[in-house]
Amino acid sequence: MAKRVRDTEKARRAARHPDRPSEECRALAGTSKPVVDRARCEGKKDCVDVCPEGVFEVRRMDDADFAALGFFAKLKSRAHGRLSAYTPNAAACRSCGLCVVACPEKAITLVSSTSGR
Ligand code: SF4
Ligand code: SF4
User: Cα–Cα distance between 57 and 73 in angstroms, integer?
Assistant: First the structure.
C-alpha cells in the first residue's frame, strides 16, 4: 500500500505544476526511478514531503558522493550540513513526477529503470 504524503499542500501544488512530467500515478512501480543531482540538492526534503510512495530519505551524504563533487558544490554541500536525498525505495516509484516539480533546486530527473543510472 502506498505511504501517505507528508505535506499535502506541497503535494497539491506540485500536482498542479505545468512542468510535471507525468500527470497520474498509473505507471507500474519500478518503471522509472528518480535520480538526484547531488551538486544541486540542498537536502530540504520537499521530495520526501510529496512522494506518495516513500521513495526518498534525506541524510548525510556518503563520503564517496561528497568526494565526487566539484569545489563549489562541496562548499554548497557543507553550507547545508552535507545533507542529500537518497532513494532507498526507488523500486516503488510510480513515475508520478511530483518530486521533479516540487524540488526547488531542480535536482531530480526521472529515468527509465532499465537505463542503468
Ligand atoms: S532532491 Fe530536491 S527536494 Fe529533495 S532534498 Fe534535494 S533539493 Fe530538496
Ligand atoms: S515520481 Fe517522484 S514523487 Fe512520484 S512516486 Fe516516483 S519518486 Fe515518488
Answer: 20
Q: Which bin fits 69, alpha (ψ -120 to 50), beta or left (φ > 0)?
A: beta
In this structure, the residues whose C-beta lies within 6 A of any atom of ligand 1 are 36, 41-47, 58, 85, 103, 105, 107-108
Could you give all domains of the chain from N- to C-terminal order, each with its CATH number?
8-13+37-112 (3.30.70.20)
Higher pLDDT, 48 or 24: 48
| pLDDT for 23 | 56
- Residue nearest ligand 1's atom 7 by CA: 41
Alpha-helical (H) ranges within the chain are 8-16, 46-50, 63-67, 71-79, 98-102
Predicted confidence at residue 117, as pLDDT, reads 57
73 grid coordinates = 558544490
Query: Among residues 79, 73, 80, 3, which one has the least CA distance to residue 38?
Result: 73
Q: C-alpha grid cell for residue 25?
A: 500515478
Mean pLDDT on 83-106: 95
